[in-house]
Automatic annotation (TrEMBL):
SUPFAM superfamilies: L domain-like
Protein name: Uncharacterized protein
Keywords: Cell membrane, Cell wall, Glycoprotein, GPI-anchor, Lipoprotein, Membrane, Secreted, Signal
Protein source organism: Maudiozyma exigua (Yeast)
Native organism taxonomy: Eukaryota, Fungi, Dikarya, Ascomycota, Saccharomycotina
Entry's family note: Belongs to the SPS2 family.
Membrane topology reported for the UniProt record: Lipid-anchor; GPI-anchor
Record GO cellular component, one term: fungal-type cell wall
Keyword Secreted: yes
GO biological process: fungal-type cell wall organization
Keyword Secreted listed: yes
Location(s) in or outside the cell: Cell membrane; Secreted, Cell wall
Amino acid sequence: MQFKSLSIATLLATAAIAADSSSSATSTSSGSVPSGCSLGSSATATAQSDLDKYSGCSTLVGNLTVSGVLGSGALANVKKFDGSLRIFNATDLVTFSADSIEEITGSLELQSLTVLTTASFGALEKVGTISLITLPAISTFATNLKSASNILISDTSLESIDGFSALKTVDSFNINNNRYLTSVKASLSTVSNALELGFNGQNTALSFDELIWANNITLSSVANVSFANLQNVNASLGFINNTFSSLTVDQLKSVGQTFTISSNDDLDSVSFKNLTSIGGGFVIANNTNLKTIDTFSEVTTIGGALNVIGNFSTLDLSSLKSVRGVADVETSASNFSCDALKKLQNKGAIQGDKFVCKNGAVSSSSSVSHTSSGSSSASKGHSSTTSGSATDSDSSSSTASIKTSKSSKSKGAAAVGYTIPQASVFGLLTAVLSALL
Ligand SMILES: *[C@@H]1O[C@H](CO)[C@@H](O)[C@H](O)[C@H]1NC(C)=O
Ligand SMILES: *[C@@H]1O[C@H](CO)[C@@H](O)[C@H](O)[C@H]1NC(C)=O
Ligand SMILES: *[C@@H]1O[C@H](CO)[C@@H](O)[C@H](O)[C@H]1NC(C)=O
Ligand SMILES: *[C@@H]1O[C@H](CO)[C@@H](O)[C@H](O)[C@H]1NC(C)=O
Ligand SMILES: *[C@@H]1O[C@H](CO)[C@@H](O)[C@H](O)[C@H]1NC(C)=O
Ligand SMILES: *[C@@H]1O[C@H](CO)[C@@H](O)[C@H](O)[C@H]1NC(C)=O
Ligand SMILES: *[C@@H]1O[C@H](CO)[C@@H](O)[C@H](O)[C@H]1NC(C)=O
Ligand SMILES: *[C@@H]1O[C@H](CO)[C@@H](O)[C@H](O)[C@H]1NC(C)=O
Ligand SMILES: *[C@@H]1O[C@H](CO)[C@@H](O)[C@H](O)[C@H]1NC(C)=O
Ligand SMILES: *[C@@H]1O[C@H](CO)[C@@H](O)[C@H](O)[C@H]1NC(C)=O
């Protein structure tokens, strides 16, 4: 079997790289680009002889597409590409090399190259965007990358992607649909937009041990994950439909928006010991083997809905003070106790208009609906039903009714910018409801 890997050696700090190149040769700062080295708005090379025309250029300005029936291609001597290089639909191309290029200001795109096995950009240190898309035969892709804003690797035959040892910051990092992929390692410390991995087959192990923060992270079909230093996810964090059995992210302190762990069939343990705040919804659902959820005892606030569905017998949210949205907790385990959640609800900590807590033995839920005369100390006396099968609890106030309800998917609440005084919960319910929509 071929050794299929992507190795991208060494790295420096990343400066933002302008993706746009100058649109005309004569306006470049050097002013010294020979006319043959300016491609106009774009040029296409379909044979090696077309590429040879640029061998006298140390800087090429413009966008070049390599396409057509050539079997191998080489771009010699060019050091800087002030524009983008696209190698597209060259269905006979087996190898391509451009080992002098140090910088591509725009993007380097390799796409739909059905027999390409080797691509070499051995001197490439800086690039705006790198995208490798539909490369079913690629076994080696080599660069010396130190700076890149966006990385996209999709539908390739790469088995490992582990050469990002010097790349510390990117805007986005997206690895999807690489069915042979077994390993992704990167030394990124920040991802200012999205880190996404998914659908790479079922055996991909990830290691992002130097990552400190990312704007958002979404992982699917991952077999093993390591985020040893991840402290903050500014927007959303989702682990959906993975095959790992344990998930440990103990340094994580906060998630700015929604936090989701769902449909991970093999997951039986989670550990998030430092997590204190979740800005959006908190969703743990359909992880069929997750029986114990006892690692969220430091979480104090949930800015959206609390939605925990499964077959768990413990759920420890002992520091929780506030849930801005609805709460829907349902388990098929009969020995799960809803008491702690009911206490929270009675204290007015659950601010959404629905509270459902059900276990396999009894069901207890309520929905609160508002009537127009908003009045007073409303949250008193509205405890939800405790036991027995779906009995109605009586409403004890004229301003609100609480009744058992079938559980339904809860709605995430947008964070609202004020706190609601307990005594006027129902008076403000209209405002809360509008914030929910
Ligand atoms: C190269 O293409 C990009 C968009 O893909 C465009 O913004 C840029 O102006 C082009 N460069 C030149 C020199 O035409
Ligand atoms: C790819 O190249 C083939 C010829 O080799 C051509 O028939 C086909 O239309 C091209 N596809 C695209 C999307 O350009
Ligand atoms: C990442 O977060 C940004 C906003 O912060 C959002 O627009 C974008 O859709 C998110 N992407 C994903 C994959 O969640
Ligand atoms: C997951 O990775 C850890 C180390 O990073 C390793 O010890 C463990 O065996 C891996 N588990 C699987 C299922 O690959
Ligand atoms: C994300 O959070 C980190 C740590 O709080 C912060 O340093 C960084 O500036 C934030 N990034 C964005 C894009 O908001
Ligand atoms: C989970 O992933 C598998 C394959 O990767 C797919 O067949 C299945 O539909 C996915 N399930 C969900 C709930 O997304
Ligand atoms: C929580 O974070 C602190 C410092 O940020 C760290 O010292 C501690 O080890 C973390 N806890 C766990 C369980 O990892
Ligand atoms: C959990 O599974 C149910 C039933 O298959 C589905 O309706 C629900 O959307 C799932 N929830 C999540 C968060 O995946
Ligand atoms: C819940 O887990 C128990 C074992 O702890 C198992 O016997 C039962 O079938 C599971 N129920 C569901 C609905 O998965
Ligand atoms: C709940 O019952 C399961 C068996 O169905 C048992 O393994 C678990 O320890 C029990 N949990 C509690 C908190 O009683």
